[in-house]
Amino acid sequence: MKITQDILKQYARLIVRSGANVQPGQTVLLFVAVDQAAFAEMIAEECYLAGAKKVNLEWQSDGISRLHFHYADLETLSTVLPWEEEKAKQMTVDLPCRIYIESEDPDALAGISPEKISAVGQSRARVLKPYRDMIDGIHQWTIAAIPSEKWAKKCFPNETPERAVEKLWDAVLATVRIDGVSDPVEKWKVHTDFISRKAAWLNAQDFRQLRYKSTNGTDFTVELIPGARWDGAAAVNNRNGVRYIPNMPTEEIFTSPLASSCEGTLVSTKPLSWNSQLIENFSIRFENGRAVSCRAEKGQTLLEKMIKMDECADMLGEVALVPKESPVNRCGFLFYETLFDENACCHVALGAGFKEVLPDGDSLTTQEAQKRGINDSIIHVDFMVGSDDLSIDGIRADGSAVPIFRNGTWA
Questions:
Q1: How many CB atoms lie within 10 A of CB 210?
Q2: What is each CA distance from 160 to 28, 40, 106, 253, 337, in whole angstroms?
Q3: pLDDT, averaged in runs of 10, over the chain (411 residues)
Q4: In angstroms, rounded to a whole number, what is the distance separating the alpha carbons of residues 12 and 40?
Q5: Residue closest to 266 by CA, chosen among 369, 356, 345
Q6: DSSP for 210-230?
C-alpha cells in the first residue's frame, strides 16, 4: 500500500479516537521518537480536534539513550532527580491520556551491559512505579507503532532501507486493520465486539485452572483467581467510564492468574527480544508458582537475569489467549517488538499482573492486590507459547475439563 498523507492521517485518527479515545477537556501526554516529528504533529492535531485541552510531548531518541548508557555511570543513570519525581506526581493529578508511538531500533542498546541496563531499571522503578500504580484503571492510554528505518532493516535485513520500510508499513497497517478503503474505526468496533464475546464466554465458565499441552514439550497447569475477569481489546477508564484500546494491534484475551500456583514446563515458540538482545529456543520450568529453572539455546544468562530482576519476577502476571490465525502471525516474520509479537499467538508474562481484573481491583492498593493473588514486579515480559498443536483446557471446580484451544486456535 502506498503510504499517503491520507493514510497517515487515518492512522493518527484511529490512534486518537479509538485507541486513547481522547475526550474534550483532557490533557494528553505523547511519547514519540524525535525522528517521527511529522507524525507527532498529526497525532497532536487529531487530539486537539477531539477536544484535548493540551498535548504535551516526551521526545525520545535511541541514539541519546545509547550514549547515556555508554558514558554515564550507574549511579547517575539510576538516580531519579526531584523534577522527574515531581513530574510523575503531577501525572497522578492530571490523569493524562498517554499515547506511546513505538518505533525503536531493536538493536539500540546492543552491546551495552545487561547488568547495567537491569540495575538502572530496578533503581528507577523503585521510585517511579508507585506513581504509575496510582493511575492504573483511572486514565486512558494506548500504544501504537510507526516504522523507522532501523527497525524495518532488523525485520527485513536483505531488503533496501526503502523497501524494508515499505514492507514494515504494509505489515503494521494490516495488523491495525487499515486498508485504505474501509473505515478502520468501524472495523475495530467489529473486532473488539468479537473479543468481548469470547471474554464473556470465558468469564461465564468460571474456570479454576488452565492446562496447556503441546508436542514441543509444553505441559503446564496454572491456577486462576476465583472471580478474576478475562479482558481483551477494549478497557474502561473507571474514573469517567470511557472505553479505550490499550494496544493497537491487539488480538488477546487475558487475565492474571494466581501468582503462587502453577506447575510444569512452558516452551517458547518465538524468540524473545529483551533489552536489545534475543533469547531463543527457551523453556522455563515452574514449581509452586515460581520459575525454578530455564534453558535457552541463545541468551541463557540474559534469561536468568530477567527472572531474577526482583523477588517476584520469576512468577506469572498474565496468561493470554491468541489464535494462530492472528493477522500478526499471518505476517510471517518476527517484529522484534512485543506490541506485535505478543499478538501473534498465545503467550504468558513473567512479572507484574493486572489488579484491574479483580472485581474491586481499581480500589485496591498494589499490596492488597498481591494478597489476592495478583503478582507485582518491576518487569512485565511476555513470551509466546502458542503452537500449531497447542491444546488448552479450562478446568472447572468439579474437575471437569472444557476444551478452549485445539491445534492453536479456538476449540
A1: 22
A2: 36, 26, 18, 37, 21
A3: 92 97 98 97 98 97 96 97 97 96 94 89 92 91 97 97 97 95 92 94 97 98 97 90 95 97 97 88 97 96 92 97 96 93 96 93 90 94 96 97 97 93
A4: 9
A5: 345
A6: EEEE-TTS-EEEEEEPTTPPP
Strand, helix or coil for residue 260 = strand
By DSSP bridging, strand 347-351 and strand 290-298 are: unpaired
The terminus-to-terminus CA distance of the chain in angstroms comes to 34
Is 390 within 8 Å of 206 (Cβ atoms)? no
Cα(383)–Cα(348) distance, rounded to whole angstroms? 6
- Residue 257 contacts residue 315 (beta carbons within 8 Å): no
Distance CA 296, CA 116 (A): 22
Residue 257 to residue 202: CA distance in whole angstroms: 14
CA distance 96 to 85: 16
Dihedral sign for Cα atoms in the order 136, 56, 232, 384: negative
Report the candidate in 320, 180, 310, 182 with the shortest Cα–Cα distance to residue 247: 320
> Residue 350 pairs with which residues in a beta bridge?
316, 381
CB 231 within 8 A of CB 254: yes
Query: What's the maximum distance between 2 C-alpha atoms anywhere in the chain?
Result: 59
DSSP states of 274-336: ETTEEEEEEEEEEETTEEEEEEEEE-HHHHHHHHTSSTTTTSEEEEEE--TT-HHHHH-S--S
Coil, helix or strand for 231?
strand
Alpha carbons 166 and 150: distance in angstroms, whole number? 13
> Tell me, what amino acid is at 182?
S
| Nearest in space to 348 (alpha carbons), one of 393, 382, 399 | 382
Q: How confident is the model at residue 254, as a pLDDT? A: 97
Find how far residue 122's CA is from the centre of its chain. 19
Q: What is the pLDDT of residue 299?
A: 93
Q: What is the pTM of this model?
A: 0.90
| CA-closest candidate to residue 171, choices 50, 364, 339, 354 | 339
- Span 91-106, pLDDT tens digits: 999 999 999 999 999 9
d(CA 165, CA 151): 8
Cell numbers linked to 372: 489476592
The C-alpha cell 483446557 sits at 393
